[in-house]
Amino acid sequence: MRDAQAINLSWLLRLRWGALFGQLAIILGVHLGLGLPQRLGPLFATVAVGAASNAALGLWVRRRERPIPEGLTWAVMALDVVLLTVLLELSGGASNPFSALYLVHIALAAVVLHEGWTWALMVLAAACFGELFVGAPAHHHIHDMRRHLEGMWAAFALAAGFIVYFVQRVTRALAAREAELVAARAAAARHDKLTALATLAAGAAHELSTPLSTIAVVARELERHLARAGQETSSLEDVRLIREQVARCRDILARMASDAGASQGESLAMLAPAALVEQALEALPGRERVLTEVDPRAREERELVSAHSFSQVIRGVVKNALQASASGAPVRLGLVREPQAWRLTVEDSGAGMAPDVLARAGEPFFTTKAPGEGMGLGLFLTRALLDQLGGQLVLDSTPGQGTRVTLTWPAGGLRQSAALSPEASRVQVAP
Hints:
The chain is of the alpha+beta class. 64% of the residues lie in helices and 9% in strands. α2 (40-63) runs antiparallel to α3, α4 (101-112) packs parallel to α7 and α7 (143-229) packs antiparallel against α8.
């Protein structure tokens, strides 16, 4: 894939060929059509310099494999400004009406170059246009015409400055808008996945709860019958194993529905962020290894939150950190109050993640854990919840140096509008 400067330069080469042919047509039209004698030799030589530079540059670009520096694009446009100045000097100087073409070069630079390069080209163009006034007395001996030409130069400088400023502002605004659209599309895609996951959990719970309940009841009755009949211990153990596996299937369905965002009548409550952390760490295996550092304001400020969902998010992140760290290794948790948001960081001392694994972390059902230890939904659902809050999840991991997970959300708490989707909230698992 070609880089942006290669694309810009390829189009610039095409525009230069069009400009060169246009210059030849104008020179011949003025000289032959209007009957105004021109210095054809120097004019054609200047056009030839532009054509030779364009041909050489085109050959060089085709053979080059490395990215093209932005300075080269600026140098080509600067050469065009100088050549235009020579053409104007040979055909009337500052009084030549085609001096307005300087603005074309500046406008083009404002579109394809960064701000610093664009201002540099504008300064060059203003200096070249000003140089034309050195020869103005040779063409105009009237003082009022001199003032008129100087006014043209001032108007040019003002217009050039406005073009650079506003085009750069528009370009930045469009780039920011495009970034917002990309982020919105990503959030919509995650929401669609969350909805699909909730639907899958609801369907699985609905379809499997009845047969699992039937199996559990029959297995219980069979166990009682075998016990009364004095059957072998191995037969009773097999029946108990069936009941255990049925209970495990129920637990998996319940966890799947909970991870998908099931909210079984949960209400919002006023809680301090520090209380959420304490609730998340309560009865967590390995809790003694978690070193917490909480901002004092996290104990003083109270916010409207969905306590269960949010504490489960924190619990899942800390649990991942504990599992990634070696036995006995500490996990650091920090909660800090920023001007407009809360920032919670969890750092482990594990093996870290390779770049390819880090790139996929957060995808639904992607996990590096052993079977039975997780379904790969924790980070995905954490990011989905934070997206709805207006926050974000950031993963920073280096192989051999552990992983840092950063959760940020706006200060003010989880509002009702940030609750999980209605589709997810309808997910229930039959007891």
